[in-house]
Amino acid sequence: MSKQHLTETKFSSLALDDRLLAALGKLEFEFCTPIQAESLPLLLAKKDVSGQAQTGTGKTLAFLLACAQHLLTSNLGQTIPGKPRVLILAPTRELALQIYKDANNLLADLPLKTAICYGGKAYEEQKRQFDREIDILIGTPGRLIDFLKQKLYNLRSVEAMVLDEADRMFDMGFIQDVRFMLRRLPDPTKRLSMLFSATMAHKVLELAYEHMNQAQLIKIQSETPAADHIDQSVYHPANHEKIPLLLGLMRKLKPERSIIFANTKHATIRIWEYLQGNGFPAALISGDIPQNKRESLLKKFHQGEFATLVATDVASRGLHIPDVTHVFNFDLPELGEDYVHRIGRTARVGNSGHAISFACEEYAMNLIDIEAFTRRSIPTMAISNDLLSELSPPKRMKKSNLLNKNNNSSRKSGNRPRQGAKRHQNSKNRSRQQTN
Fold first, then answer.
1. Domain boundaries in the chain?
2. Please, which residues bridge with residue 162 across strands?
3. Is the pTM of this model over 0.85?
4. DSSP H or E segment with residue 336
5. CATH class for the domain made up of 230-402
6. 10 Å Cβ neighbour count for 67?
7. Does domain 3-220 have CATH number 3.40.50.300?
8. Which of 4, 40, 162, 363 is the most exposed place for a label (fewest CB within 10 A)?
9. Nearest 5°: phi and psi at 116?
10. Of 114, 76, 86, whose CA–CA distance to 98 is shortest?
11. Which residues contact 104 (CB under 8 A, 6 or more apart)?
């Protein structure tokens, strides 16, 4: 963690339980980040918070500490099966898993029990979690609603609620599911509520006003929505130059750990095949990669077995992968928000990073919206002949790798992919209109 990104506020100066302070010490956390320093005093005083900060600035630790402190000092009695005391909603299974992992690391030596629910796998295993006590329930809306309707649990005992990446809930078309959950919680005056997001659009603020108790608004941001520590640049290649340019930059820059984003599954496959054929072993994840395989690939990338990850926007939020040095936007995203979240995979928690984008013939017009959203002009780089690398033939991906064996189980588990896709398109259109 970069010390320049930290404040002078020590966790030990806050009204935290000694067991939490011991856990923070074990994790070598001494000073707060800005979002932690501003939100935690309010949350520890039992005031609702709606917090905005760039990705990778410590929002997760802030709300986990607030939830744990609330539970440790609550006088409402013991936890019983089927009645969780904290609800944490996340838009994607990757983010839910990351929160779950962080919670277990923080609470390893504390008497608080966690559970996680998300679509795509482990349906029966997740159901069995409700046979025991659960203090903190973490999950995505679809699977949580599925289990709620089966009456495996209820929300009447929830003392604290967290809505993470609220803007992403809108973008992915989950907002009606979120409202369904929030309306089944105790009255906002009878619980502690937290809403955290990297962007705070008007629609997100309306959600806070409706389902929170006079939430205190906190904004931690620089002059632009993108992190200051990211060195951004853009190239303008012809479509046929994109693969040679990408490989030329990979050979020149030799990134220690990089993520390459594309807008479609087919584009990610093409990129992956050329990387494999030219000496750059890579992991590939997209929305229809089976969950077990996706988790395995992300783990290998996290552990350094692969230096490169090729992904669609499924990986642009919620994943805390340390030491990502370079992000490549092989395709420019349509929305400025998505650009910010993509490049936010580098420069985590104050570290520096590089974001390199291709404004090609197909997606160049998206650059106008991106620069308007980020309120800055991205420097243009010249394409020299030495960057257009000579290519070896691609290594074709086997068709068996493309099959998603979890499609049927995903539909059964309440994920409703077709309906969600339609919601996402409608939400994306609305977001684009608001951005313009």
1. 3-220, 230-402
2. 88, 194
3. no
4. helix 336-343
5. alpha beta
6. 26
7. yes
8. 4
9. -135, 140
10. 114
11. 114
Residue 247 tokens, joined: 């490989």
CA distance 150 to 133: 18
What kind and span of H or E run contains 170?
helix 166-171
The low-confidence residues of the chain, meaning pLDDT below 50, are 1-4, 223, 403-436
User: For tokens 């990610």, what's the residue?
Assistant: 268
Residue 432 is predicted with a pLDDT of 41
Closest of 290, 282, 279 to residue 262, by C-alpha? 282
pLDDT score at 410: 39
Alpha-carbon span 7 to 25, nearest angstrom: 17
Q: Is 240 helix (H, G, I), strand (E, B) or coil?
A: helix
pLDDT for res 292: 76
Check: CB of residue 83 under 8 Å from CB of residue 154.
Answer: yes
Q: Look-up: residue for tokens 């609550």?
A: 74
- Are 3-220 and 230-402 the same fold in CATH? yes
pLDDT at 404: 44
Alpha-carbon gap, residue 315 to 124, rounded angstroms: 26
3-state helix, strand, coil in the chain (%, to 5): 45, 15, 40
